[in-house]
Amino acid sequence: IRSNECDLIELREDTALLLPGAKLQSMTQSKAYKMIRQVKMNKRAYKEKLNRKATKRNMELTKQAAADEKGGLPETSRVWKSTKHKDVSRSARFFLWMLIHDGYKVGRHWAKIEGHEHKATCVRCGITESMEHILTKCDVPGQEEVWELASEMWKLKTGEDLPKPTAGQIMACATTRKKDTGTTRLFRILISESAYLIWRLRNERVIQENPPASQDEIYNRWLRGMNIRLRLDCALTNVGKYGKRAIKKDLVQKTWVKVLKNEVNLPRDWMRETEVLVGIG
């Protein structure tokens, strides 16, 4: 029997059936971590904790170091974004983020911990430690040798010496721009990896109480770090494996040109070679 009246169908969703959150079957460890971290970062207490005097002071140092030729300062958001820049390795990114936040326990932090008060003072220099002292001024073998190696590589690349960076310039390294993309990228790698190595050398000596690293050890570890970055760049040019995440070969070539060992004898597509090394020393 036909009817001229239309049936009324309820199309609205029953809110009681809508469950909050993500489906467990589609959840991954990475997604879960990002969600938990986002919730934590949105909390007022977390934001207030990060907005400390030390953080503000370091942010100002970073922005001053990143000022352009006309004295223009980068936005705070740009500085924080730079700590996630893909030119910088994941470990070095976290190091820069912690550095700006003054999050590492050095100097005065140890003075309040019973039995560890001696760690507040640099044994060699006799002054209270700070990140600036550790990274750019300490007389213990480490920082001086590392920055000399960095300068040597920079001279191969540009023909110019690399002045030892200040703490502000280290924190601002991922915002720094040079004359071209390749030079800019090498600068960011050079500064971030060198500073991070100095920090690790200091921790091994102070926290793990190992003897200071020898000249040969410092050289070998710095060179190994540069070669790891080089080989990683070469591997990441594999479009078949990494798809859209792959790095363009042209960018890798521009980054490492002039600093490779026996560069004149390398094939044009040297990124496929397994024995390509940084040519310093």
From TrEMBL:
<protein>
    <recommendedName>
        <fullName>Reverse transcriptase zinc-binding domain-containing protein</fullName>
    </recommendedName>
</protein>
